[in-house]
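User: Fold this; tokens only.

Assistant: Input:
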Amino acid sequence: MNFTLEALQANDGDCLLLHYEGNDKRPALVLIDGGPRGIYRSVLKQRLDELGGGKKLNLRAVIVSHIDADHITGIVDFFKDLREEEENGNELPFRIQTLWHNSFQKLTHGKTASVASAAVVSASTAGTVLPGLNDYAAAVVASVPQGNQVRDYATQLGIPINKEFDGELVCADEGKMPVIKVANGLTFSILGPSTKELDDLDEAWKKAKSASADPSAQAADYLNRTVPNLSSIVILAGAVDQASGKSHRMLLAGDAGGDLIWEAIQRYGLAKNDLFHVDLLKIQHHGSRHSVDQKFFGNVTADHYVISGDGKHDNPHRDVLEWLSAARADEPYDAYLTNRVMTTGELTEALEDFLKDENTNQPKHHYHFREDPQLSIEVKLV
């Protein structure tokens, strides 16, 4: 069995390839996010072409974790490229079985919050930004048109959208954890966003409305409250060796908040004695200190940690690396990072200082980095 996560060099974004091959020897390849501008041409396309080897490559799924430019732009460029090939009468080099993508409009459909959704779509289409948005909400809102482009291209290419969810949202039910069969021996369990988080949108809009009579201010207040809850599709990927019965798990956290992920883990009874262990954790939000804390790393442990980031916005943040180290003090783990050289010399020096401290004080913690000119760094579980 092969169960591998490959983190491509995506600068400040995410671009992941999940490789699986079970006992039936039928490979399944899943693309999760495409990174920011330029990554498709310089990295993702090259890697997909390598994997295809001149033959048509089958992608079991393409997943957009959420509509933020550092995740979705590469998918827009990928689908645009395919559409142009099709229009030119060329045979497509890839077959994509399904797209998982929660559009902004779909997330707020049928709720009074759709008033805010309409305001956002109108503003973003006109090239303007609603005043009063925090940085994170503004980044997500700015990518609303890209989300629409992805859906349009998918429709034109005949790629089913959210097929396993009957075309509805990819989300986690409050009562029962959705488990999707991806291949023989491979499942994706959905931990977020939850239906409760979506249902809370209505209440958040009412609070925003009561706080201000200005529609733009209402929308901004609403979005600042709710965008973190809608940030990501969170997947627990599980693979079972059907010969030995041994199982392996990857927690792919996107940019979701650690508190929301932990709530989902507890809700579904996955934790024992406040501990949930996986083979691999893709640390959320590129190692941002705003999405995780030391308590999360104490509750959710892993043998392997993956961080995609190049120092932009101070991610991966040294606080996060130190929280992880402290939570797992004197316990072995391996961490895999897409970049050792950060966007500034100061950040690179800070990372090197941290690694020196770890080597002295926590020799069981091992750090691995993608080496140039390699396109990615891989973590092979089996």
